[in-house]
Write a structure and sequence with these properties.
heterodimer; A: alpha/beta; Rossmann fold; 4-stranded antiparallel β-sheet; 9 helices; B: mainly alpha; 76% helix
Chain lengths: 248, 312
């Protein structure tokens, strides 16, 4: 059997007296779509940050396709094929859409060190950038400065940035947060349409979107994983209904 | 685009004709404005592009100037060797000081401030080597081979050519992928990391390039001033370099030179009749920060956007 795309092995993250993530273990198969759910403060984003390398776990390991990456810096993990989006859109607000994409395209190789040729002369990269804009539905905004984009458009741009890294694993932290219902619909279709070659791990608060997208669902509560199962199992589980949906 | 090229050519033609139109006082002042504009430009590579507020650029400036002066005056080394040696010495120092990029924000400001004071202290206290308070005097005009600069007007042209060439190279640098990575870091470091960038090494290289430009300014300065003492390494020089960039407009090429012009003209003009010149300078900075935080170039950009009907 091929190793899991992402394996989290007895991972804990402690902030002072708070165990934000408490002895979590999970395994996401290659090509799988995994959704993390749980109430606010359950530790979902902290777990994400430990997987992406933004935070160092207090104990435990993270494995990417069987390799222990627990000690790798965030940028090294990105270079190994870990893409991510953030809970609050993290794009380069002062740069144009094209410049944002250019940074995502050249990040992995030596092109980022070129000093003697203006970015405007990189025509192949420009074509690639426009191509990635078409995929997320932002084709006509290439030369706009990002701070003039709507919130939904920034979400689309952020997804394009993460995809340009050519990720094997993509971590999406509440991609639909802050979007209008119609934008949510569009965006979740966009995510659903991503190629299966990309293993997806996603935090989502909208339970309908979450259960529709997921192959499997992991439920976190107070930093602990309380359930790991199919969407149907999650719907049926009494404990999840209690902590997540509240008592009926 | 062609309009900009025409504007550039016109500006160069005026710059070339100026020495025959104005007196030696202005030629000397313009030379000084270009040299300190270059120093401001070097500090602005960090401030305007990477978002790092450095307070040690006088160190590279002064180390380059001292090196060239000591080699040329005490050891009779020719300009052709003394000038590159000065640039090299300042740049090597920037390789060391560049470790400051491990810090951010106020810590970066403080550590560069401390670095700057170390060099000033050495220049001031190691009198047997640096000449102490008296510095190194009698630096000749530069001469390479049979070509000898004969006076301030000729030196004005030397500085003009050097500054224009560096500004053109700088323009390529900031529009290149590397330049873009610096602006990306300024905008969102965490996003850069998650795109696979080792942010620290990009900032390190930017710091060294910035030190290189400051060193070139230092060598141009020592042949202009023909004398170097610890004042060139002092804190106000570092601070003014950054403030010049802010007054003129950070993140631009023209801005640091405009800022240098405003501050040096004010200093030369106001200090002639008003004792509290630094107070006037303070007011200039306060007005800039309050009413034109993007500096003069920011005002120009806003005015042009307004003229195109895009709103301010």
């Amino acid at each position: 059997m091929s190793p899991a795309a992402i394996a989290v092995d007895h991972l804990s993250k402690v902030f002072g007296g708070l165990r934000a993530v408490d002895d979590a273990s999970l395994s996401v198969a290659s090509g799988e779509r995994r959704v993390l759910i749980g109430p606010n403060g359950a530790g979902k984003t902290t777990l994400f940050n430990c997987i992406a390398g933004t935070l160092q776990p207090t104990s435990g390991r993270v494995l990417l396709f069987g390799d222990d990456i627990s000690r790798l810096a965030e940028n090294r993990r990105a270079a190994r094929g870990m893409g991510r989006t953030f809970q609050i859109s993290n794009v380069f607000a002062d740069l144009t859409v094209f410049e944002n994409l250019m940074l995502s395209i050249i990040g992995a190789d030596g092109r980022k060190w070129i000093m003697h040729r203006p970015v405007s002369r990189f025509t192949a990269e420009r074509a690639q950038a426009l191509d990635s804009l078409v995929k997320v539905g932002l084709a006509d905004r290439a030369d706009e400065t990002v701070k003039f984009l709507s919130y939904g458009e920034r979400r689309q741009l952020e997804l394009a940035l993460a995809l340009n890294v050519d990720p094997k694993v993509l971590l999406l932290d509440e991609p639909c947060a802050g979007l209008s219902p119609s934008e949510r619909q569009r965006f979740s279709q966009l995510v659903a349409g991503l190629p299966r070659a990309i293993t997806l791990m996603m935090i989502e608060h909208d339970i309908d979107i979450a259960l529709a997208l997921a192959d499997r669902v992991t439920v976190l509560h107070h930093g602990k994983i309380i359930l790991d199962g199919t969407p149907d199992e999650v719907r049926a589980n009494a404990q999840v209904r209690e902590v997540y949906f509240g008592r009926a | 685009m062609t309009a900009r090229v025409l504007l550039l050519v016109a500006a160069l033609a005026i710059a070339a004709a100026l020495p025959s139109l104005v007196g030696e006082f202005w030629v000397t002042l313009l030379t000084q404005i270009m040299i300190f504009g270059l120093l401001a430009l070097s500090a602005d590579l960090l401030l305007g592009h990477a978002g790092l507020f450095s307070l040690c650029h006088a160190a590279f400036f002064a180390v380059a100037a001292y090196t060239t002066a000591i080699l040329q005056v005490r050891h009779g080394v020719s300009t052709a060797l003394a000038a590159p040696a000065g640039i090299l010495a300042g740049t090597i120092l920037s390789f060391v000081f560049a470790f400051a990029v491990r810090t951010r924000g106020v810590y970066f400001i403080l550590i560069t401030l401390a670095f700057g004071y170390i060099i000033w202290g050495v220049a001031y206290r190691w009198a047997s080597f640096t000449g102490g308070d008296n510095g190194v005097t009698n630096v000749p005009f530069p001469a390479i081979g049979g070509l000898r600069v004969a006076g301030p007007t000729q030196y004005y042209y030397v500085v003009l050519v050097a500054v224009v060439l560096i500004a053109l190279a700088y323009r390529v640098l900031i529009t290149s992928p590397f330049g873009l990575t610096l602006r990306g870091i300024k905008s969102s470091e965490s996003r850069m990391r998650s795109l696979g960038y080792d942010v620290g090494s990009h900032l390190y290289v930017a710091f060294v390039l910035s030190g290189l430009i400051a060193s070139i300014a230092g060598v141009l300065y020592v042949y202009y001033n023909r004398f170097i003492n610890p004042v060139a390494a002092s804190f106000p020089v570092s601070l003014e370099a950054v403030l010049m960039a802010i007054v003129g407009g950070t993140g631009t090429i023209l801005g640091p030179f405009l800022g240098s012009g405003i501050i040096l003209v004010l200093r030369n003009w106001v200090s002639g009749f008003f004792h509290y010149y630094t107070a006037v300078l303070g007011i200039v900075f306060i007005v800039t920060v309050l009413f034109a935080p993007q500096g003069i170039m920011g005002l120009v950009a806003r005015w042009r956007a307004g003229n195109r009907g895009e709103g301010a």
